[in-house]
Design goal:
The chain is mainly β and 200 residues long. The protein folds into two domains: 120 residues, Virus Head Decoration Protein, Chain: A (Beta Barrel), CATH 2.40.300; 69 residues, no CATH class. Helices cover 0% and strands 42% of the residues. It contains no helices and 15 strands. A five-stranded mixed beta barrel has the order 1-3-2-4-5. The radius of gyration is 19 Å and the shape is elongated.
């Protein structure tokens, strides 16, 4: 695929960004009647699903200037990456312009043509996760899980030590390290536990 084939979108960053930098979309504006995405450095999103992330094109873009970017959805794109290993899972991490291992979002196809880049493809987003309760749960209390994975089991949502907050919508009682499945609820912007292992 040549660079002319990519479905570019226009963006304007709030800080200078290097070619192939990974950015978070913070809003939109217009220029000459055309939608332009406002971009910024990625920040951790708590319990929200994967944020809208764009990868800067092959040119540096100054703060407040205009450049082009693409999402890596459906086609591989060059991005700055901490791994160039085929099959590695990488994603944006807090306060970084680079994709890192231990975070979800993209699959590495291999090294890019430019040092420090990899060819990556966006993962299909999953909003159902599984994990293990970090402590015993009773009385319908909300809780956290660790060792979080998507329901497909193919990649982690976070590193194994990271936790995800779960709303105990169905008043589950759960043992410490009890197995839990949860689904993201867009209405309340949080994960609802919908199934849990019964206490021993």
């Amino acid at each position: 695929m040549s660079i002319a084939d990519y479905p570019w979108v226009r963006h304007t960053p709030d800080a200078a960004v290097s070619a192939h930098a990974v950015m978070e979309v913070s809003g939109t504006t217009t220029q000459l009647g055309e939608i332009v995405y406002q971009t910024t450095q990625f920040t951790a999103g708590g319990n929200t699903p994967t944020k809208m992330v764009l990868i800067n094109g092959p040119m540096d873009v100054g703060s407040g200037e205009y450049g082009v970017a693409c999402s890596g959805q459906g086609y591989p794109v060059a991005a700055t990456s901490g791994s160039t290993t085929n099959g590695a899972i990488v994603g944006p991490s807090d306060s970084s312009w680079t994709l890192s291992t231990g975070h979800p979002g993209f699959v590495v196809a291999g090294a890019g043509a430019i040092a420090g880049t990899a060819m990556v493809l966006r993962q299909a987003q999953s909003i159902e996760v599984r994990g293990w309760a970090t402590a015993a749960v009773a009385n319908g209390d909300n809780f956290t899980i660790d060792n979080v994975k998507t329901m497909s089991g193919l990649e982690t949502v976070a590193s194994s030590s990271d936790t995800l907050s779960i709303l105990n919508t169905f008043d589950h009682d759960i043992d410490d390290n009890g197995f839990v499945m949860a689904k993201y609820n867009e209405t309340v912007a949080a994960y609802n536990g919908f199934q849990a292992e019964c206490p021993a």
